[in-house]
Each structure stands twice: as C-alpha cells, then as structure tokens.
Amino acid sequence: MSGLRIARTTALLLAASMLATTLPAAAQWREGDTVLVSPDGRLIRDMPELGTVRIVADEFGRNLLINDWNEVVAIEMSARDYQRSYGGVGLENETFGNDSADAFPEPPAPMQPGSDDGYDAASIDRGNLDPITGTVPDEQQPAAQDIPGAIQAYPDQGQPQQKNVQQQPVWPKISKPQVVALQVFLDRNGMSPGVIDGRLGGNVAKALSAWKEATGETLDPADTDTVMQRLAAGEGLAFGSYTITAEDAAGPYVASIPTDYAEKAKLERMAFTSTVEMLAERFHMDEAYLKEINPDADFTRQGTIIKVAIPGKARTGVVASIVADKGRKQVRAYDEAGKLVAAYPATIGSSDTPSPSGMVEVKRIAPDPGYTYNPKVNFKQGENDKVLEVPPGPNGPVGTMWIALSRPTYGIHGTPEPSAIGKTESHGCVRLTNWDAGELAKMVKPGVTVAFEE
C-alpha cells in the first residue's frame, strides 16, 4: 500500500482523535471527503483509537482498518460512494456541495431469522459482521483451468448454449469470505451451492445458472458490492456469531461411523460424531471450513462463541415437478406454472448402478429414515451377504430424509457426506445434502413427477 494511502487514513484517525470523537450532526460534506464505515454499513462517528487498529488494502484498493483479531472494524470510502452504496445511513442530515436537497433513504431493516431456520435466533450476534471480507482477505481462488468439470456459468452474450456442455467458467479472483457471501446469497434464494466452503467451483456455477433461469439475471461473482448490498437489505450479512449451548455440547454423539454395514447395524443411531460436524450441518457449512475460520475454538465447551455463515430460511411453496439432471448433476424443482422454485447440486447414479431414466413419481416422504441393506436388491459390500437394518441418523446411508420414487429401491435422499455432493457417484439414487433434501421434502407430495434427464 502506498505511503499516501497510509497517510490519508492515519490523518483521518488523528483528526478525529484530536478534534472530537463524534462528528457534527449536520456537516457540509465536500466532494472527495472520506468517511469510515462499519462492517454492517453504518457511518462510524466514534473513531477507533490510534494503536488499536492497523491499516491494510484489499484487492480493490480500499483501506480496511483491522483489529488485533484480524477482524475488519471499518472500511474507508468516499462520502459520495458511501451515499451511493449504502443509502447514506448516518448521513441523512449531511449535504454534498449543491446536493443539499437530496435525502438519503434508510435501507430496509434486515429480516431476522425465523424459528424454522435450524438455529436459535437469540444466539446469533450480528454485531461483528464483516460485509466485505469477514476477515482480512486470504488466499485467492483457483483459476478456471484448476476447476475440472465446472460448467459455463457466464456464456458469451448472443451465443446459444448446448445443454450440459461441461465448460470452464473464468472465475474472478475474490477472497474466500467474499465467495461465502455469494454462497449464502444463493442459499437464501433457493439456488443451493451445496456446502458453504468459500470455494468457487462446479456447485456454485450450477447455482448461478439456476439463478439466471429463475430470474433472468446474470449474477457476476466479481460484483461483490451488489451481493453485499442485497444480503444487507435482506436477511442480513453472511457471517455471524453463534454461542455453543449445553445441548450442543452434550450431543449425543458417536465416536466414529464404521464403513462396514454389519458394524453400522450394531449402532444405536447413526448420530453425528462431534459438535463441529453437527454445527457445520446446521449452518450448511463445510466442516473443514468451519474449523478454519475458528482455529482456536473449543467446540466441545458450552459458551464458546464461534463465527458461522448464516444460511437462509427453508424455502416454502408447492413443487409440481422435479428434474433430476444427470449431466449437470443437479435437481431442479418447479411450480405449477413452470417457474423454478429451487435448485440443488446432486449426486445421481453411477456407471455401475445407474439411476432411472424417463419419468417417475414421488410415492412417499420418510423423515429420519432407517436403511435396509439387501445385497440381493441393492449392491454387495465386501462379505456382507445378509439383510441388515441400519438405524436412522444424519450419518446414515440416506441421511435424514428419504423421498421414495415409484421405481422400487430408488429415491431422493440426504447424505452423511455433504461436501461430496455433486462430486462423487451414488448407488443409483439421487443424493442431496441433508438440509436440501429436507427442504425439498416439505414442498413435495406423492404424485409429483420426477423427470430424469441425461
């Protein structure tokens, strides 16, 4: 970062500390004036003290004020840009040159999580959110050539698209937390990116394509300002804090999940193996990423405060038809008018045990299902040659939801490995994350058609 940039922000802090800690209520702002903005988009009048923050520049050239915990406490921007980006919250009584007659509207208040979000709204602290990066920007995302099999999410304008052509998008270089913001936005709007992990890849590309189908809008991942503004105006920004409860810490949990089906059948329940696994699923996150952003957290201790992504409320509505797209590895749900309601990355069949073709129907919905292993009907694992009853649980072979199809032994179901969805093969069924399977199950009923497309 240039010395001029450091000097400008340092001067801003010095001036604030020497003159006053609170700015006047009705200042006359001039073109080029600079303000500090809090991570939740509010004008900062109580300036950070010198020595309590350091200044870094992000990849867009903006000055960020970082505390000792590597959290962004303020973003420096021009007063004009702040008015344009955030509606001038806190500048309602300020004026810009000859624009004194312009009023700056208050943006919509963020919606609070409902009781059906899968977490306790009272436990979420939105006061320490970071709308730009969550923390200091970290490693950059892989180039397009490093993402095998990713589909083209941003076709050239005017060029016809061939269905299921596996092309590689040119991904922008944005930080992991900025990718998380995009993933959370897509998740909240029913276009599931699978696990929230801060990585641009095939599942994000599929979600972006679904967003375009549903809205007609091409959402550019590089346009992080638009993503942040929409998050802030909706259910709130992407990151929040969660306090681990006594119930979270207590479980019950199992030490490990065996791979052998005969050993699985001996368990009382196919439960989570740890608090971190349970919380990762609750917040739709990749387990490794949850650990990564909370490197010093004791997930087993009640009262521990952790940083989490805040996913959306479960989608509601009535799904009239489903498309299980084998080539795209995606399930798409439509209403009676043919409008896309939701889309989910999926693992659909394999070369050895292919999924059905053509049209089938939903027969029944079974939450928290057990699993019957029958080597004569399904597949054979090792030396297991007997029918085995595997108990229910999130780590069961079909996860926490089973949507039975009219083709015997086939269904749409959850999974014990959400991070593998869309990247591996199944034993012929359609596998979604547990939360996506649960969301879809609440919108379907027996008789809904499921079309398997190649």
Automatic annotation (TrEMBL):
GO terms for molecular function: peptidoglycan L,D-transpeptidase activity; transferase activity. One of its GO terms (biological process) is regulation of cell shape. CDD domains: YkuD_like. Pfam families: YkuD. Residues 320-453 form the L,D-TPase catalytic domain. Belongs to the YkuD family. This is Lipoprotein-anchoring transpeptidase ErfK/SrfK. It comes from Hoeflea marina.
